[in-house]
Amino acid sequence: MRAGRRLLAGLLVLWGAATLTFLALHLIPGDQVDAILGPSLSVTPQLRAQITAEYGLDHPLVVQYLDYLGRLLRGDLGQSYQRDMPVGRLLAEQIGPTVQLALSAALAAFVVAILAVLVTAGSGRFGRWLASVIELLAVSVPNFWLGLILLTVFSFRFPIFPAVGAAGPLGLVLPTATLALPLGGVLAQVIRQELELADGRPFAISVRARGASEVHLTLRHTLRHAVTPVVTLSAWVIGSLIGGTVLVENIFVRPGIGRTLVGAVVSRDTPVVTAIVLLSAVAFVVVNTVVDLLYPIIDPRLRAESRT
């Protein structure tokens, strides 16, 4: 029953994303035929009429919407107007660098958060205050500003890392740091708060009574409880990474879904924009559904609640 409800909710989210994308792209001022033809200097009326009929743009908006949903249900993402290639093949070519960047940023953010919490766990009130200030600064810094600062320092002032492109592991360092630092600040705040709560629970008091050190208590017991709520944030992390890659890929001129999306929006390449929005919605729904189904396994208290 629980899985059925999550599946229905996921399908509703995908339908909503597809519908909003369709409406948004059709409400943008401008002629759709011009977007399909591209920057052509001279277009005959006959060619415009042919394009209009071929793409069904002379049909009422409701008919266009139903035809659009039917093509999506058949798995037909259409043809890119500007690149003259199937949208599915275009996304297959661009998704690799984006997944690579997103995974490296998520891993780096988690490692940074854990290390920050462990380093400041026993540093007293001032140490925790200082760590909180640093985390707040990391969270508050916009991705584009952080990316420009990293480029200025580590590519132009000290040419350690390449400024553009995605060639080799070095080309991944600055984009990963740009995405990971703000994300790591949020995760560190959540983990530290949960760690302080777990530190005062009965099991922690019992471990201390057996003579265990604070390091042993943190690594073997309280940290596991503190990290568990991070699983709940997985869907939010995915959303942050998807949104962040749009900026980061353009700042560092990396290939990927985010840079493709910006180009498609500028040129009103409707099939490409629609496909990328739906791909993002699918990623969000899948992660949210998996987390919701796995959370009772991760947290035994929820299994006990479901049985009562």
UniProtKB/TrEMBL annotation:
Q: Tell me where it resides.
A: Cell membrane
Keywords in alphabetical order, please: Cell membrane, Membrane, Transmembrane, Transmembrane helix, Transport
**Top-level taxon of origin:** Bacteria
Kindly state one GO CC term assigned in the UniProt record.
Answer: plasma membrane
Question: Which PROSITE patterns does the record associate with it?
Answer: ABC_TM1
**What is the first-listed, main subcellular location in coarse terms?**
membrane
User: Membrane-crossing residues?
Assistant: 99-121, 133-154, 160-183, 230-252, 272-298
Extract the InterPro entries matched here.
Answer: BPD_transp_1_N, MetI-like, MetI-like_sf
Pfam families in the cross-refs = BPD_transp_1 (PF00528), BPD_transp_1_N (PF19300)
Where does the record place the ABC transmembrane type-1 domain?
95-295
Q: Which GO terms describe its molecular function?
A: dipeptide transmembrane transporter activity
Q: Which family does it belong to?
A: Belongs to the binding-protein-dependent transport system permease family.
Q: What is this protein called?
A: Peptide/nickel transport system permease protein
Q: What organism does the UniProt record list as the source? A: Kutzneria buriramensis
